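User: Can you fold this complex?
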Amino acid sequence: MSRANHPMRRFGPVLWHTTLTLVAVAMVFPVLWALLTSFKPANDIYSVTPFSAEPTLDNYVRVLADWPVLTLLGNTFVMAAGVAVGQILIAVLGAYALVHFSQRARGPILVLVTISLAIPPQALIIPQFLMTARLGWLNTDAGLIVPQLGTCALAVLLLVQHVEAMPRSLTNAARLDGARPFEVLWHIVLPALRPAISAVAILVFITTWNEYLWPLLVAPKPEDTTVQIGLTQFQTAEGNDFGGLLAAATLTSIPIVVVYLFASRRITDAFLQSGIK
Amino acid sequence: MTLLTGPSRGVRQGAPRRVSSALRPWLYLSPLLLALGVWIYGPALFTLGLSVLDWNLTTPPTGFVGADNFARLFRSADFWQALGQTLLYAVALLPFSTVVPLLLAIMLWQRPGRASTVYRSLLFLPVMMAPVAVAVSWKFMLNPLLGLANEVVGWFGIPPVNWLGDPSTALLVIVAVTAAKVTAFNMLLYSAALSGLDRRTIEAARLEGASSWEITRFVVAPQLVGTTVLLGTLSLVLAGQWVFTNVTVLTQGGPDGVTDNIYYRIYTLGFEFFETGTASAAAVIVLLVFAVAGIGWRLVRRSHVPR
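Assistant: Here's the predicted assembly.
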């Protein structure tokens, strides 16, 4: 359908752009303002003008000296990457099996997966915490990663949709040639799934990077925790140093925003082409 | 058995199999079932068990106490207040999980093209932004003495507001901060639903001379009922959960408990007061409400969504 005769067109282009730009700016404003403020000197920090007359890196210098940012970024990276890899493994194997050889178990298992997507984490944190503590995993990478593999529902559902959308003729042809199921997965399904897998992996990586509740419970030690928890601890300790705090906030969120902006098309497409209704 | 067009399980010959075909699906599914069983469904049952034991995290459990934990929970005024505030959050966030994202998704869908792709990516950004960084930035902007928010309301002659300390504004702030994220995520889910619409029926309606309002009302809207019922139900049950990080960083449930809710209460009961039994009782109530909402959603969906 050409753009000119789209049947639903009601907004003029000016109104359309204005509305969407305003909403977008309002939505990213807090992070934008944190970024701008982090370059302001202490005596100018509350000023309303977005750009300081004397921009400075003092806030960053102070944060990097007083706060183990690099350690925390490292911890957070290990957690997010571990959860992303683990969930993708679970989801690829599960999605392949559900679509290609367990027609009867498929319905009930997808119901279990869907329900798990919506169970609020707070209803489960007490037993999850006790189990993690009993395993001796408090303040460890294992404690940060393994329990979060349980929240793989979104990855599974998105990948099931994408495996489902692959033409059956591809996999059937390989099978007729005598390929074993794992060879079909490895040589046919995986290469075709690569865009979907990378989108879902980035999505899981970012949501895990931003996870707050679980690291708060199992890794409260300042040197073993993640950037999100470190930021709240920094806020408690240096509550009035907003320059440092906002520089720290920028350091913890800008890497993710950059990753997202590069991969955003892939991530939104993973939803748009998933056939979710 | 049709080899070329049938489902793949129809193909049975070929290379010798090492794993028997009855067992193979379960081999591939075992990581998924293990992850869900050990870390989701196991803990859900475990919570049920903990809710009838007398136990705090610091000492071993002393015994079975039946409904005592529930009784203690029901006697506490804080619990009822938290439950009431949970409901308030649900009502306040409902428009931001349905109407607002739907309008944005429809706007983006009306003008497909590069601009709308860019806007969609930008509007989804709040889901990706680190929640603690966002909350910290709000705390800075809402500073009661010098913050940007009071500077701006000052331009309109409004005296400074203690945004997070005043019970009449604290809840509104938490809702506003959370609303951006909820709107962003549901906008994408509505966009997914819209991209799956049958464009031919829309085109046909247009050729029949239907106005764009009529098309929205009679062709598009009915196809979005399922999505809306789902997002509305999720919002009612989970609104209190979505605000969790913002409550922890900005208000810790205060002032006077107005920003508290049942999810935050489970956390404080369990991990600040170490009342494992009472916290588990509250968690069980959440799971029950959740089950009822799930059944309700199935019923509404069955009666309203054409198959």
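The radius of gyration of chain A is 23 Å. Chain A has a mean pLDDT of 86.
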